[in-house]
Amino acid sequence: MASARGFRMGGTLFRAPSLRPAGTAALLLSAALLAGCSTIERVGNVIGGGSSLQPGQQGYVRGFLGNVVAEEPRAALVARDILSAGGSAADAMVAAGMALTVTMPSRAGLGGGGACLGYDPRRNELEAFLFLPGARSGIPAGADRPAAVPLMARGLFALHARQGRLPFETDIVPAEQLARFGTQVSRAFAADLAAVSGPLFADPVSRAVFAGPGGAPLGEGDRLVQQELATTLGQIRTAGVGDFHQGGLARRVEEASATAGGFLTVPEMRAALPQAVPAQQERLGDDILAVLPQSADGGATLAAFRTAAAGQTPQAVPGTFGASTTVVVQDREGGAVSCAFTMNNLFGTGRMLPGMGFLLAPAPGLGNVQPPPLGAILVANTSVKTMRYVGAGSGQGAAPAAAGGPAALHLRRRAPLDQAIQAGAPEPGRGIAISCQGSVAASRCQAVADPRGLGLATGND
Q1: If 0-12 CB within 10 Å is exposed, 13-18 middle and 19+ buried, where does residue 14 land?
Q2: Closest CA to 340 of 310, 362, 372
Q3: Least C-beta-crowded within 10 Å: which of 99, 134, 177, 394?
Q4: What's the pTM?
């Protein structure tokens, strides 16, 4: 609840001055900005050295940056740039998640959400952040495609408030620029677009964004410009995430969602909050293994880890069809974040909010829509305050197995990371991971993207 002292989430009180009349998200933002500035000043004395570059500028960090793996290459490069600018793993993840709303809107967007695991050596805690696209109490009158309550922006803001270092608005800028000035369509997004362009283009707003001059879907290498999305991202950056949930932006979402058949309301947007909770944990020798709470993965990630550790093949969760996409990040200080993002369905409801530039996710539990299980895993040693392994998986019902299986093969059965990723992720699962043996250093850490997928591993230089 909010008070004069701040905002409490997951048992922690975020203290903040009253910068303007605001709700919970604005109070979180002010606390995050204050903490980020003071921390960067201290780190800059070590990382920046005599460089004229300032925190937040690419190239501020010299030498080993950390590692990033994402299933969409542009998002990986954006996250790497944030690490180069002095950001933490959480900063890099916020930037990557926001970038995915531009480069991979089929699976991640402002109308959707996700779940993350985070380890910050400064806090020395393994935390889970749950911001799944929210359920509705019922189908609103006139809603032919009832939308889930969006939680992407608030979820990433919660992650930043706990573990970020750079100002939150700095982490949003790359996504805003990609939307405003355009980005090349990746092979990964082109494949999703080609698969559902027929029904998707029945929505004229989506067709205007994702179709080329001749009406055919944009292909790999084509330029994708999203001016309305850029404007929305810019307003979130300047007015704050709170405005998206209870201010002028929230009222615009309410109005536009009625046109798109989703019928969201400002009270629903205001009430929807992410959760910052302890991750599900168990001992792994001297380390601690963490997975998402069962509400996000149904307990399947840990089950897959145990199955693969015993020498058996983990199986996909039956009867699940929702789409997701994943990112894992490790920073130079031993911090790590693993996130799985979802729109509950490929391209969500298939309808874009007019004037706002993003798709809505379908409400879970209504009709045939069920949220997909999300797969993420993180191993850290809290005694020496460093990460050991961070991974994630996608692929509908195989996502948890694609996260837990490779981790077990690598950590328990000593398979090389690249072999573990391929052997441990059953079809249609795709795994990504970063592993550091011993200390966190360029020579000790390896990042791998599933070669069967279309992702990118970068950093480590």
Answers
A1: buried
A2: 372
A3: 177
A4: 0.89
